[in-house]
């Protein structure tokens, strides 16, 4: 009768993994969710943590786990880039000016810890780099003329089963053979070469560089006319999408969908792409291309309603923007506004940065 009351030795054993010490739980299950600068500081905690963080497997795991926005790289004309963050203690890079690259560069795009840069002069070579590890690779010369300020997008999505960083570059550029047309060229690190798409977009649109956003296999660019040009990497097809937002609106990502963000005073509004085929639906169907999704107020004391506003990034549940001389960060989950201790110039070109240890 008492047989069922005996303690289970497997559960109560002191060495059981069910009773891991707190430091071991943090090491095994929490460290990978920290940005790179915090991890470098954690290496001084103990020998075990240092060894854990130094392994290629951990670097791969951290690039899969950490998706927060660490800050912004900003660059003005003919000047080296600089880095700005709302959390200097946790986020940062050892060389914000990217002087470890062989030539002075302009930052073109970023994706999950990797940066796409381009030689300012010479043959305009593209470079892929990780600002944290200072690793870099040059990209073979493209086949087409991408122009002096290319609308190029870097796509890097870490894979659980692939330790090697595989990425793509997608560039939309004015056609040399057809007036008022756009062509697309794609570079694949897996293939190690560029490929010119057979698709040509006859939309007569001038694309704005650095507005490119990649969502679920489709790249979107904002045009100077205010609408959006898309290119589907899987279907190898382009499309023109109408946008009913102001000229200062920004493309971003919200809940895994393309969104546009705009501001009026201290009010920020986001709308998401709902149905790109709404214009082909029958009259009265109620189908809408864009749907209102989120509106919030910037209520920080340092932000003035009268100051001009400019949103520079939307993604990962965060909105970053300028309010006159102040840079702010708004967390859509916490509904909190933070102010950057230092603010880049209002007209500086900005690129968001995610601090990961991904290996090149």
UniProtKB/TrEMBL annotation:
Entry-linked InterPro entries? At3g26010-like, Beta-prop_At3g26010-like, F-box-assoc_interact_dom, F-box-like_dom_sf
The domain of life is Eukaryota
Limits of the F-box protein At3g26010-like beta-propeller domain: 108-285
This chain belongs to which protein, by name? F-box protein At3g26010-like beta-propeller domain-containing protein
What organism is this sequence from? Daucus carota subsp. sativus
Source organism phylogeny: Eukaryota, Viridiplantae, Streptophyta, Embryophyta, Tracheophyta
């Amino acid at each position: 009768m008492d047989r069922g009351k005996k303690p289970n030795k497997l559960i109560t054993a002191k060495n059981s993994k069910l009773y891991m010490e707190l430091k071991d739980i943090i090491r095994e299950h929490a460290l990978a969710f920290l940005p790179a600068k915090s991890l470098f500081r954690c290496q001084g905690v103990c020998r075990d943590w240092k060894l854990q963080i130094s392994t290629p497997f951990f670097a791969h795991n951290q690039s899969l786990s950490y998706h927060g926005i660490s800050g912004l790289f900003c660059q003005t004309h003919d000047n080296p880039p600089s880095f700005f963050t709302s959390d200097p203690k946790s986020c940062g890079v050892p060389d914000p000016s990217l002087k470890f690259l062989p030539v002075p560069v302009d930052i073109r795009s970023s994706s999950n810890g990797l940066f796409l840069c381009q030689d300012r002069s010479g043959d305009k070579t593209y470079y892929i780099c990780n600002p944290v590890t200072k690793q870099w690779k040059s990209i073979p010369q493209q086949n087409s003329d991408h122009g002096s300020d290319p609308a190029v997008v870097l796509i890097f999505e870490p894979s659980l089963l692939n330790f090697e960083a595989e990425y793509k570059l997608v560039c939309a550029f004015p056609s040399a053979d057809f007036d008022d047309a756009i062509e697309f060229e794609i570079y694949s690190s897996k293939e190690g070469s560029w490929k010119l798409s057979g698709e040509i977009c006859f939309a007569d649109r001038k694309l704005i560089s650095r507005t490119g956003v990649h969502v679920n296999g489709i790249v979107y660019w904002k045009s100077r006319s205010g609408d959006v040009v898309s290119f589907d990497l899987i279907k190898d097809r382009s499309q023109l999408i109408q946008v009913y937002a102001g000229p200062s609106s920004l493309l971003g990502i919200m809940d895994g969908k393309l969104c546009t963000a705009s501001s009026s005073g201290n009010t920020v509004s986001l709308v998401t792409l709902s149905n790109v085929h709404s214009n082909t639906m029958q009259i009265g169907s109620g189908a809408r291309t864009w749907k209102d999704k989120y509106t919030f107020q910037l209520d920080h004391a340092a932000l003035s309603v009268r100051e001009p506003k400019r949103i520079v990034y939307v993604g990962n549940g965060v909105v970053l923007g300028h309010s006159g001389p102040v840079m702010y960060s708004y967390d859509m989950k916490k509904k909190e506004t933070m102010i950057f201790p230092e603010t880049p110039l209002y007209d500086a070109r900005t690129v968001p940065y995610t601090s990961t240890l991904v290996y090149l």
